[in-house]
Design goal:
Layout lengths: L1 H5 L8 E7 L2 E6 L7 H6 L9 H20 L4 E3 L8 E3 L5 E3 L6 E3 L6 E2 L2 E3 L6 H6 L1 E2 L1 H17 L4 E2 L10 E2 H10 L18 H14 L10 H8 L36 E3 L1 H6 L14
Antiparallel strand pairs: 1-2, 3-6, 4-5, 7-9, 8-12, 10-11
Helix pairs in contact: 3-5, 3-8, 5-7
Length: about 290
């Protein structure tokens, strides 16, 4: 409650009021007419309906919100569950980052904090899953996955549908494969109909997203750098990407198939449990189904 009540930012969903009665807490927020971002990426007639300019504006707004959480308060707020379902859209499609159920406060100079791994499979940074080490760079990783989702209109994690497959495909790996083949722009959602003048903007988004999804937290940019890049600063994108997909550190070569919560789709697993699963081999698809 302390975290929620203290945030004030145009791209963060602010608490309007609350009450506690008969052992239950009720939180009141503004009604977001356009619902959550994932509706416009994956579901029904809304799927793929967002225009290129709107998607760029959404990503820029979420980046500003995360930069504020990391640097704009007396302590750093770790959101820990950055994903499309937690980005709500106003009537004018302005993004509002929501859901602080997993958020934690840490000191600005505290460094990595050991916590039980939590979040949504596909968005959780590898160091969180396998070592339980959490910094603001875990949110950066989640934002990178979100940016790829918005650009590609593909889910962060494609679950294996047949028992014999026994493997999940991650969007991050598919985009890295395209980058290795010098086909990075082929990742873009064709339904966006990107104008020639916007192609450089989307090249920047994909470049920055892959930097955010680096397996090493130290190699990821800060959200301040990401926000500046999405608002036109070219300093970050002048840093070249690796020619091939970077290798994960020892015991980080794949994400285990985490059990999702029946209510929120989040995972909660200890670092020791995750390490026990870290010997599995990850396979790469030629493409992911939409």
């Amino acid at each position: 409650m302390g975290i929620i009540s203290s945030i004030r930012h145009r791209n963060l969903l602010e608490l309007q009021g609350w009450c506690y009665e008969k052992g239950e807490a009720m939180l009141v927020y503004k009604y977001m007419r356009n619902g959550s971002l994932d509706r416009y990426l994956y579901y029904g007639e809304k799927r793929g309906a967002l225009e290129s300019e709107t998607r760029l504006r959404i990503l820029a707004g979420v980046a500003l919100a995360l930069d504020y959480l990391h640097t704009g308060l007396w302590e750093c707020v770790l959101h820990r569950d950055v994903k499309a379902a937690n980005v709500l859209l106003t009537e004018k499609f302005e993004p509002m980052l929501a859901d602080f159920g997993l958020a934690r406060l840490v000191g600005h100079d505290q460094g990595a904090v050991t916590m039980t791994a939590a979040g949504t499979p596909g968005y959780v940074a590898p160091e969180v899953v396998y070592a339980g080490k959490v910094t603001e760079k875990a949110d950066v990783y989640g934002f990178g996955v979100l940016a790829l989702e918005v650009a590609c209109c593909r889910p962060a994690l494609h679950r294996a549908t047949r028992p014999e497959d026994n493997i999940d495909f991650r969007l991050v790996d598919w985009v890295w494969l395209l980058h290795q083949g010098n086909q990075l722009m082929e990742a873009l959602d064709p339904a966006m109909h990107v104008e020639p003048a916007q192609k450089q903007h989307w090249k920047c988004v994909l470049h920055v997203a892959l930097m955010c999804c680096s397996p090493s937290p130290e190699s990821r940019p800060s959200m301040r750098q990401v926000s500046q890049a999405l608002h036109g600063d070219t300093l970050l994108i002048m840093q070249p990407l690796p020619a091939t997909r970077p290798l994960y550190p020892t015991a980080l070569t794949s994400l285990p198939s985490a059990s999702a919560s029946s209510t929120s789709g989040t995972l909660a697993t200890s670092a020791s449990q995750a390490s026990a699963n870290s010997t599995s081999t990850f396979g790469y698809p030629a493409c992911l189904p939409r």
